[in-house]
Structure formats: C-alpha cells, structure tokens
Amino acid sequence: MAIGEGPGSVTTYDAKTPLRRREEVIADPRARLERMMEIRHAEQKIRELHEEGLAWGSTHSCDGQEAVAVGIAAAVPPTDHVVGAHRGHGLGLAMGLTPEQLLGETLGRSVGAVEGLGGSPHLVETSVGLVFTVTLMGAGIPIVAGLALAAQVQGSDRVAVAVFGDGAVNIGAFHEGLNLAALWRLPAVFIIENNHYGEFSRYDRTTTVEPPARRAEAYGLPWTLVDGQDVDAVIEAVGTAVATARSGGGPTLLELRTYRYFGHSRSDRAPYRPEGELEAWRARDPIRILGDRLVADGVVDEADLAAMEERCRERVEAAAAHALAAPVTDVTAMFRHVYPEAAP
Ligand SMILES: Cc1ncc(C[n+]2csc(CCOP(=O)(O)OP(=O)(O)O)c2C)c(N)n1
Ligand SMILES: [Mg+2]
Description:
This protein has helices spanning 18-27, 29-51, 66-75, 89-95, 99-106, 140-154, 172-183, 231-246, 277-282, 286-296, 302-325; strands at residues 81-85, 130-134, 160-165, 188-194, 197-198, 201-202, 223-227, 252-257. It has 344 residues and is an alpha/beta fold.
C-alpha cells in the first residue's frame, strides 16, 4: 500500500490504479506511446505551474528522456524493485503513478504520491515496485544492492533495479555498490541514464572512460550501450539484463544514451550547450521515433496520434486542477513517518 492510501485518503479522479496503468505499458505499444506523450505534457504543465507561482522549489524535467522511463517500466515487472533519481517524473508516471499523484506531489498537496511530503524529486509507489526516487546522486545504487541481497537471502526471485544519471558514475557509492553486487552475484540491474550532462558539465569532461558503462569491466560485470531514444531497444536491453539477474546470472550495467531538452533545473537555461546539439537530438525525438514506427506498422494512424495527444493534455489538465483543489500539506506532516506510528 502506498503512503496516503487507506481510510480517510482523498479519492482520486482517475479510476485507474497505478498497477493498471503499469500493466497497460507492459502489454501495449500504443499505451507506451501515450504514456511518453503524457510525460511530456506533465513536464510542460509543471513548468507552467512554476511560472505561475503555484509550485515552489526546484524541479528537474525529463523532456527528451521519455523512452528510457517507459522502456524500463515496460521491461520490469511491477513485483520487482526500482530506485530512481531526482529527474524522476517520467519514471514515476511510466511505472504507474497517476498524473494526479505526480502533480499533487510537485505542488505539495495531500493527493501527492507521498502526501506532498517529498516534493518533485521524491516519489514512491510501492504497489508497482517504485521504492523511491532519491536526490542524493548515486545513493540508490548501494540501496539496490541491499534490496537484491535481501531477495537472494530470502530465496525470492525478485530483481532490484537502480536508475541514475551519468554524473553518479563518479560517486563513491557507484563503485561500492557495483563491487558488492558483482562479488555476491546479486540479482540487480544498474542503469546509467546518460543524458550527456551532470548539472552544467558534459559527462566526457568529468569521466575518464568512454563510454562510462565500461567502468563495469573493473568489477567483472557485463555492460551494454543502448540507444535510449528507442523505447524498443530499451525494453530489449533491460529485459535481457533483468532475466539474467533473475536466473542467477548476476548484475549488468546498462548505459542508455539520451538527452535532456531543458536545463539541469528550473533556473538553468543551458547556455553551455554547443550550437546545434539540442536540435540534433530533437531530430531523434523518442516520441516521434515510436509514433513513426507504429504508423509504419499500421498499428495507429495520424488521427490516433492526435487523439492520444488530446487525451494526455486533458488528463494532465484535470490532474493539475484536482491537485490544486486539494489541501496543501500541513507543515506538521514533517513529524509523521519519522518514528513508527501506532496503528489507528
Ligand atoms: C552526492 C551529491 N552531490 C551533489 C549533488 C548536487 N547535484 C544534484 S543533481 C547533480 C547532477 C546530476 O547529474 P546526473 O547524475 O548526470 O543526473 P541528471 O541531472 O543529468 O539527470 C548534482 C551535482 C547531489 N544531489 N548529490
Ligand atoms: Mg546527466
């Protein structure tokens, strides 16, 4: 059960549960396309809410990285564990969070994924295996090693997956976590979401090896470089790594190459990017790649694509309105969930 569910919680406007939303993404390429569109709309809406002064604090948008989020959610069953990072809106929606849970969280409202206690970078939905997203770079990596160790000790066939940025490969926790996971052949998958920048620095100005996933060799682990703009390539690579981990084959390090369309956070206009770089990546837009493929295969037509866009726009607008109508989380909420609480 997610925090916030149970007696007394606000009924959501969206009748679909996170689990149902996740099952759709696993089963249907059209749902994957629509979810990628939904992520794009949600990010746009969150920027607007900040500009209007209705959301506060910072936020990290993932426009351009939708195929990574949806590909992981489609390849990992909801019974496995996933830990994400601060740029996690897309992963959250892809894994099943409702737009209302995401927007409620970014707005600090009671209908948020964790009742507005965590805010934009801290998302949880245990019913679909989203253990949490974490802002401390690389911090999820040893935690995923621990989750995988727990599965191994308990004799469960559960796999644990860490998703983190290219900047995290230079954090000590990355090395500690990979070493331990490799040594004990833990059922884990480590995914570098290489969007080319860690804050204001290109990854190749801060990292000694190319591609960064080659770091896996230091720990005797297999690694793969994957086109993170192509959701089908992501599904195949993540699915293979998860199957290997589940069958006792140990961990894999994957590097999914992608690109963030906006700056690091709300205040960054990304003046450090070379001219033409953004345009070159936009030409390989992940939503367009899957949309074109589904049209070419006769799975959808242009009218379907327009209808999907419209549904996403409406869903996100309704979620924002509903979240804005919900109570702002009271400041005393910070004292809850700190110590074990007595059952009601
Ligand atoms: C341990 C730690 N050091 C510094 C920061 C400040 N910080 C937040 S995000 C970020 C860059 C992250 O880059 P990357 O891992 O590539 O993820 P991206 O933002 O590109 O998704 C930094 C330095 C942090 N959150 N944690
Ligand atoms: Mg990065």
